[in-house]
Amino acid sequence: MNTTNPLNVLVYGATGSQAGAVPTFLLAAGHQPYVLTRTADKAAHHARAGAIVLEGDMADGNRLREISDGMDAVSLLIPFFANPAEVANYGRQAIDAAKAAGVKLLVWNTSGAILPVRTGNPSIDVRIDMQQYLQESGLPHIIIQPSVYLENLLGPWTAPFVANKNQVAYPVPADMPVSWIASDDVSALVAAALERPQLAGSNWPVSGLANPDGPALARAFSEGLGRPITYYAMPPRDFGGILDQAFGPGAGAAAASEYQRMWDFPEQRPSFRADMQPVLAELPVQMTSISQWVTARKALFSAPVTA
Q1: Sign of the CA dihedral 240, 244, 247, 253?
Q2: Could you tell me which CATH class the domain 150-180+210-272+288-307 is placed in?
């Protein structure tokens, strides 16, 4: 039985796309979200909707302890684009603050899969460290591990190709299936989990319901946009070059290397598909299809779009 009492929920990461809809779902369910942000202006839309905006920095443990007091639950998202050492510090401080405040449940959106073994890449392995720290903390928690966000397809490595060339471009081989998931669906799962403290201890990989390879992804785009779209398996080195242009020299090297492994070692390709039946039995969320997601963003995939 999920809780029927209104909850005070501290939400991390709500000014970004991955957790941006968590406050919306909480408000719709009658709960009070408290949105942490470095700059209040970035969360003005949440404030207008009814969320309470709190300024603070995840690097400031004292501030996190202060704002965690009085919270019933926490929606945790850690900014994994930061230095891995900083990421680990952010996560530990948020967990410590929640535990000190007597928070009844923390739901962690891991922003990707927690791999079973270390890879040697600190940016990936830090999820293993954070999972261990959370489990050892004794804080009641639920872990939600999303597969690959559909929002990745809005980046300059994909959207301009769809708009200008009618190609959905991504650096995975055409025969490799990927179970894309909408960030709003992950937010809905997080919000539903926050209402169900009896599920503490659950650790769920989550994904979309479809598992398309490249051509099937293109067909979903064709359906969503109402025009023919084909799949372009972008060489990983080209993908890395676009990342370098978007985020600075060297930004794309690690990502390009990870994708190249999917080409060079097909037998080692990760599976992004999760068994969603038991998840949705506990968290009854209406999932978004790829074509529905594309249709809702039709203008973003219409020419001209620059990289």
Answers
A1: positive
A2: alpha beta
**Strand 230-233, strand 148-149: pairing:** unpaired
Domain boundaries, the chain: 8-146, 150-180+210-272+288-307
306/28: higher pLDDT: 28
- Predicted TM-score (pTM) of the model is 0.94
SS (H, E, C) 81-131: CCCHHHHHHHHHHHHHHHHHCCCCEEEEECCCCCCCCCCCCHHHHHHHHHH
Q: CA distances (Å), 96 to each of 81, 92, 129, 201, 240, in order?
A: 22, 6, 15, 17, 37
Classify strands 73-77 and 52-55 as parallel, antiparallel or unpaired.
Answer: unpaired
User: Given the structure tokens 């949440």, which residue do they identify?
Assistant: 46
- H/E element holding 15? none
Domain 8-146 has CATH 3.40.50.720: yes
